[in-house]
Amino acid sequence: MDLKYTDAKPTDDERAAVDALLGPAPSGWEGGTRDDLDLRWAKGGHEARDRRDQLLPALHAVNDRIGWISEGALDYICRRLTIPPAEAYGVATFYAMFSLKPRPAKVLHVCTDIACAAKGSAALCAGLEDRLGPAGTPKDGVVWQESPCLGLCERAPAALAIQAGDEVATAVIAPATAEAAVAAATAPETAPPEATELEAVPQAQAGDPTLSLLSRIGTVDPTDLDDYRAAGGYTALRNAFAIGPAAVIREVTDSGLMGRGGAAFPTGRKWQATAGQPDAPHYLVCNADESEPGTFKDRVLMEGDPFSVIEAMTIAGYAIGAHQGYLYLRGEYPRALVRLGNAIDQARARGLLGDNVLGQGYAFDIEIRRGAGAYICGEETAIFNSIEGQRGEPRSKPPFPVEKGLFGKPTVVNNVETLANVLPILTRGAEAYRTGATKLFCVSGALGKPGVYEVPFNESTTLRDLIDLAGGATGSLRAVLLGGAAGGFVRADELDIPLTIEGARAAGATLGSGVVLAVDDTVELPRILLRIAEFFRDESCGQCVPCRVGTVRQEEALHRIADKTGADAAADIALMREVGQVMRDASICGLGQTAWNAVETAIDRLGAYE
Amino acid sequence: MTTTPERTRTPQGSAPVSLGLPRRLIEFDLDGDQVRVPEGATLLDACRDAGKDIPTLCYGDTLTPKNACRVCVVEVEGARTLAPACSRKAEPGMKVRTDTDRARHSRKLVLELLASSTDLSTTPHVAGWIREYGAEPDRFGPDAATVAGREAKVDNDLYVRDYAKCIMCYKCVDACGDQWQNTFAIAVAGRGFDNTIAVEHDGPLPDSACVYCGNCIEVCPTGALSFKSEYDMRAEGTWDEDAQTETTTVCAYCGVGCNLTLHVQDNEIVKVSSPHDNPITRGNLCIKGRFGYQHVQTRE
Ligand SMILES: Cc1cc2nc3c(=O)[nH]c(=O)nc-3n(C[C@H](O)[C@H](O)[C@H](O)COP(=O)(O)O)c2cc1C
Ligand code: SF4
Ligand code: SF4
Ligand code: SF4
Ligand code: FES
Ligand code: FES
Description:
- The structure holds two protein chains of two kinds.
- By secondary structure, chain A is α/β, with parallel strands linked by helices.
- Chain A has five domains: 12-92, no CATH class; 106-195, Glutaredoxin, CATH 3.40.30.10; 225-433, NADH-ubiquinone oxidoreductase 51kDa subunit (Rossmann fold); 438-520, Ubiquitin-like (UB roll) (Roll), CATH 3.10.20; 525-604, NADH-ubiquinone oxidoreductase 51kDa subunit, iron-sulphur binding domain (de novo design (two linked rop proteins), Up-down Bundle), CATH 1.20.1440.230.
- Chain A is built from 26 helices and 15 strands.
- In chain A, strands 12-11-15-13-14 form a five-stranded mixed beta sheet, with helices on both faces. A four-stranded mixed beta sheet of chain A has the order 4-3-5-6, covered by helices on one side. Chain A has a four-stranded parallel beta sheet with strand order 9-8-7-10, sandwiched between helices.
- In chain A, α12 crosses α15 (306-320).
- The radius of gyration of chain A is 24 Å and the shape is globular.
- Chain B is α+β, with helices and mostly antiparallel strands.
- Chain B folds into three domains: 3-99, Ubiquitin-like (UB roll) (Roll); 104-146, no CATH class; 159-297, Single Sheet (N-terminal domain of TfIIb), CATH 2.20.25.
- Helices cover 22% and strands 20% of the residues of chain B.
- In chain B, β12 and β13 (268-273) form a beta hairpin.
- The longest helix of chain B is centred in the middle third of the chain and has 17 residues, at 101-117.
- The relative contact order of chain B is 0.10.
- The chains are: A alpha/beta, B alpha+beta.
- Chains A and B meet through α4, α5, α22, α23 and α24 of A and α3 and β8 of B.
- Bound molecules: flavin mononucleotide, iron/sulfur cluster (3 copies) and FE2/S2 (inorganic) cluster (FES) (2 copies).
- One iron/sulfur cluster (SF4) is lined by residues 175-176, 181, 183, 185-186, 210-216 of chain B.
C-alpha cells in the first residue's frame, strides 16, 4: 500500500509522546528524521499495518501529553502506523475527548445530564460562567465544557478535571461547587481526594452481610492482591481449572445468568457459541464503556473490586478458548484505569495472567483500551471497530460477534457486572447461585441515599423496595426513569413493578443497564426530555439516516413544544411518533432504535405536555 | 432448501447462473409467492428478479452494501426491526413483505428526513419516490437543520465536491479505499449529524492523496460529486441531459483497454463514465481515461 502523508511536522513533545507508546521510529519511512519530499510517499510493511489498532492509544498519547492533536502529530502517527491521513482524521474527529484545534491543557468536563440536573447542575454551570466565562471559551489556561453523564451520578452534580502533561493529572469533583470545580481545574494535583468507593455503596457502609457482588467493596483493599486472595479471591478460577472449560460453560448456562449490559442475553449460550467456533484465535472483550446516562455500577465494581474483574475475565477467556482479553474502559474513568492497571500488573507478576496462569498451562493476558468519549462504542460491534482503530460505528449483523467479532474472529463481549457474577457461580455452584442471584441497580436522582444497590434478582424485590432502601424520595416523587436514557419512565404510582426482566417487560418497561433515576418536580419534565434528546443527537454515530437525522428532528420538535401543552403540542407529538417509529424500526443499532423510548414513555405514561 | 441444477428449476425472471454445476437454491416467501434465488442472493436481488421496485440510495452494484440509508427496508416476519433489502441475504423459509404499512412508513420517513436535511435536487429517482410515498419533507418546519447550505468545494479543475447534496452513503469512501482504488484519499469525518466526507483536516483536494481517478464520482448517487464541466454547466443553466448522447469506446491512453462512455452535448464531451458491467474494471478508470478528454478539448 502506497500512502501519501502530509508535510506537517510533529513537535518534539508530540513525537516523544507517540514514541513512548510505539517505541522509537525505526527508519525515515515511518516518520523518522529523513524528510525529503519523496518521503511523503511511504511503503509500509505488513508489520506496521498490523498495528492499526494502536491508533486510538496513539491519539490518547498525544492528547494526554499536549491536550490536543495537531496536524503534525496526526501525520506522525499516520507514518508510524501506516494509516492514511484522511482515515486517521476521520477517527480522531469521531471522539468527543479529542480536539484537533488548539485548546488549553486544562479541561473541565461538567455533567449536565439527568441526575446532575436534578441536583443543581444548572446553578453549577452558571457559577462556572461567572468564573471561567462561557463554555468552550478558554480563560486563564482552563476551558470548561458540558458533558453527558460522567458515571458519578450518586455524587451529583459532578465534574471531572483533566490536565494534559507528561503525567496526566485528573480530579473528580463531586458533588461539585463552582468554586471547587474551578480550583480543581486550575490545579488538579492539589484537589482534595475524591470520595472512596465505599461511599457509593450505602449497603456496604451499613455492613450488610447479604452482599455478594459488592461484598468486597470497602472491606478488601482494592490495590492489594494478597488482601483479595485472603478474602477468597481466585477460588473461582481454581474451581474453573478443576472442572475444565466445557463444565465452566455448563455451570454458567445452568446458572441462568443473563447479560447485565442491557440486552439480557443468556451468557452461557454466548460462551458456548463462541467456544465452538473452529476459527481461531478467540477473543474476550469486557465492555466497561459504561456511558448510558445514570449508569455507574461498573465503575464502582472496577474501582472497588478490580481483581474480581480480572479474575472473572480470566475464567471467561479460559471457557471460550481465548488467550487475549481486552477491557474497553470508558475514557472518563481515571480511578478505574489506575486500579485495573495495578490489578493487571500484580496478577501478571504473580502468574495469574501470562503464559501459564496458575501453572495450569493456560495462557491469558489482558489489555486495557481506553475509550475517548463516545457512548456508541459500548455497542457490541462498535467496540470492535474502536479497538481496531476504526471509527466506532456499529457493524451490521449478521455476522454476529460469536462468529466474526474483534479482528474478524469469534468474540465474546460481556459487561463488567455480567462477568462479576461468574465468580459466585463458580464458588457456590450454579444451583446455589441461581436461588440467590442478585442484581446491581444504579440509584440516583431525588433520593436520600443514592448509590449502587445489590438486591435479590427475583419477584420479591419491587421498585418501591429499592427506593425505600435508598432512603426514599427527597421531594414529591414524580416519576422514575428505569433502564437509562434508552429505557423509559414509570409513574410514581407504579412502584410495585417487580425488578425482574419479566416484571419490567410486563409493565412495558425495561431494566436496561440497571438505572433507577428518581425525578421529583424540581426539574421540569420537558427540560429532562430535551437533555435526553440532546444526548442521542450528540451520540449518534451518524451512519444511518433514521438515527442521524431522526434524533435531530426529535430534539427540534421538543424545543418547539418546551413550553406548550395540549392541542398546542399535539402536532409535534404526532410528528415525533412518526420519527420515533422509523428510528425504532429502521435504525442499524440499539442507539437509534431506543432513542425515542424515554420521550415516548414520558408522553404516554407521565402525560408530559398534557 | 433444495439443491437443483440451476437452469432447470429457476423461476421466471431470475438471473441465470452460467455455471453448469448444481447450485443451492434458497426458497422463501416473498409477498406471498414462493420464490427461489441462488444461495447468497439478497432480498433486493430477489425483489428485482420478481419485478418489484424497491428504492435504493446507498446500494451500489459494484460495492459491498453499507446499508446506511435504510430507504430499502422490508419486513421480515418474526424480526423485531425491519431489514435492509440491499444487504440482507435470503434465508430458506423466511417470510418477507415488501409493501406493509410499516415498511412503507419507514421508507417515507427516510425520504422525508433526507430531503429535509440535504439538497436532493440532482439525485436521480428521488422526486418520483417522494411522490410515490407521499413524503412531505417540509413538515419539519422552516428551521429544520440541514446541510443544504454548505458551500461547494471547488478546489481543482477536474471535479467538484458539493457536500450540500451528500447523503453520507459512504460509497465514495469505499470506492476510493480498499474496495477499488486503494488511494484512501477521503474518509468519513466528524460524528452524527455533523459528519461529512473529508480529506485529512478537511483540506483541499490538491493537498490530499487524491489521484483524480474519478471513481468516487462514478458511484456517487446524488450528484454531490460531479465533473467540473457538469457543475459549471448546471450553474450556467446549460446542462441538458436530454440533449446528450452516450458513446462507449475503448480508452486509448494505455493497453489495458478500459471502456469509456463519453457523454457529449453540443459536440463537447461533458463527462466520462464507465460501464459497471465490464467484468474487469467495473466502472473504474484512471485520471487519463476519466479526465483525459480535457486535454483533447482544451489543447492550447
Ligand atoms: C448504544 C449502545 C451502547 C451500549 N453501551 C454499553 C456499555 O457501555 N456497556 C455494556 O456492557 N453494554 C453496552 N451496550 C450493550 C452491548 O451492545 C452488549 O449487549 C453487551 O455489552 C453485552 O454484554 P452482556 O451480554 O454481558 O450484557 C450498549 C448497547 C448499545 C446499543
Ligand atoms: S442507529 Fe445511530 S448510532 Fe446506530 S448505527 Fe445508526 S446512526 Fe449509528
Ligand atoms: S478521484 Fe479517485 S483518488 Fe480522488 S477521491 Fe475520488 S476515488 Fe479517491
Ligand atoms: S459524496 Fe456522494 S458518494 Fe460520497 S457519501 Fe456523499 S452522496 Fe455518497
Ligand atoms: S454523573 Fe451527572 S448524570 Fe450521571
Ligand atoms: S439502499 Fe439499502 S440501506 Fe441504503
